[in-house]
Design brief:
elongated; 154 residues; single chain; binds FE2/S2 (inorganic) cluster; 18% helix; 4-stranded antiparallel beta sheet; 7-stranded antiparallel beta sheet
Length: 154
């Protein structure tokens, strides 16, 4: 065809170059992606929360950290809010003074001990201390006995 600016041969040539460029781009992207490590960032295990007076008397749930801050006067304890069965979040039932897990029915007493399974282990208590800026510092890597308490001077 004489009036057509792109003849069949040139069109197939363009198509070949386009396919080659697409293949090279795809392989390059896959190579870069392969060289990039897959990293899952976990939240820090040690962190500060509010100042002691920020927490009212009783059991305070901090959903963003999945912990309970238990205040009794000027003493504080920090307990995990992760069920030891499959990781659901138990909730505090003040009338019964227990934590109940909504997923499979585990119940923990106020010391975190298992009252009813299937949870295999008690809720752990974390070390808490006052940081230099006056906030409560929690270290989830340090499991402490229920009897260990943070006492704050008033
Ligand atoms: S996750 Fe709590 S009872 Fe199963």
């Amino acid at each position: 065809m004489s009036g057509n600016p792109i003849d069949r041969r040139r069109f197939l040539g363009f198509l070949g170059w386009f396919a080659s460029l697409g293949t090279i781009t795809g392989i390059s992207w896959a190579s870069v992606r392969f060289m990039t490590p897959n990293i899952l960032y976990e939240p820090p295990k040690a962190f500060k929360i509010g100042r002691p007076h920020d927490f009212p008397e009783g059991v305070n749930f901090l959903p963003e950290k999945r912990i309970f801050v238990v205040r009794n006067g000027n003493t504080y304890k920090v307990c995990s809010a992760v069920c030891t069965h499959m990781g659901c979040t138990p909730h505090w039932v003040e009338e019964k003074r227990v934590w109940e897990c909504p997923c499979h029915g585990s119940i923990f007493d106020e010391k975190g001990g298992v009252v009813k399974g299937p949870a295999p282990d008690p809720l752990p208590w974390y070390e808490a201390r006052i940081a230099s800026d006056g906030r409560i510092f929690i270290d989830e890597r340090r499991i402490v006995p229920y009897t260990q308490t943070l006492t704050v001077k008033t």
